[in-house]
Amino acid sequence: MKNIEEIKSKFKNRDRIIRILSENQHFRAAMIRNTNTALTAQDRHKLSEIPANFLARAMMGSALIANFLKGEERAILHITGNGLLSQVYAESSQIGETRGYVEFNQNAPKVAQIKDMDNVLGIGLLKVTRILYDQAKQNSGIIELIKSDIASDLEYYFNKSEQIPTAILMEVETDSEGSISKSNGFIIQAMPGCKHEELKEVFEKIENHLQLGNFFDDTLSIEENLKNVLPFDFTISSNLPIDFYCRCSKDNFTKAMITLDIKEIEEMREQNQNELICKYCNEHYYLDEADFTKIIEIIKSQKN
Ligand SMILES: [Zn+2]
User: Fold this and answer.
1) Which of 3, 9, 99, 191 fits as disulfide partner to 246, beta carbons 3.0 to 4.6 Å?
2) pLDDT digits over 228-271, tens only?
3) Distance 283 CA to ligand 1 centre (A)
């Protein structure tokens, strides 16, 4: 029989996002632990410390936004910059699936030469997109990066672009080998009906608490951490596991190839270009002779 304590501790350390509503309904907040998700992303994309840290933050951001949506609605956080990284992309569904990737600037300084974290993204833009059920069009907004650390930029986005008083905190740490060892985040937003004085008092109390040091204690559960940070009573409105998960499949890739020209497919086959790579999760798929034949047959049948 497995050690019960071991199972319990695994459960406690499971990546999770918990959303709460203050008792007086003037604030909503969410806290996330996505350490394993971030580590999986780092491992899949074979990233060193700094890019992995920024991808962890972006995935946290998209998960925090998606958490306020419904069902399988999704949120995308897409950051472009002129620093070490040209792109950081993260996408999360409300049900806890998260995927993402980074791209490097061709002329960027080497990771080892990055001294100032501001230069990881440099000057750039942050775009928030929500993919909602009841709207045919995507709903998105864009701002210029103000601090290029993702947390402050997303906070600024909510305050300015969506005019929702918001505070966001992200904390990502790596171990001596450069692997993600801790990745936690927190968001609090004022709801309609919240008076300015109350808002000021609550945000100040949280800020004072956070200035004392670690905002997230790994020996405690997320609920306990929320209790420590929040200066009011609350009820939990959702509690969901978070995972790195991509819905790509070889089948979906081959379906997309059916839109190509037969000539292109034949060229790929001749040149033995049989590798398909998902940019979101770095999964590699390989086409065999039978796959090529099948794709060509389907394209031919569509033409008739
Ligand atoms: Zn994928």
Assistant:
1) 99
2) 999 999 999 999 999 999 999 999 998 889 999 999 999 999 99
3) 6
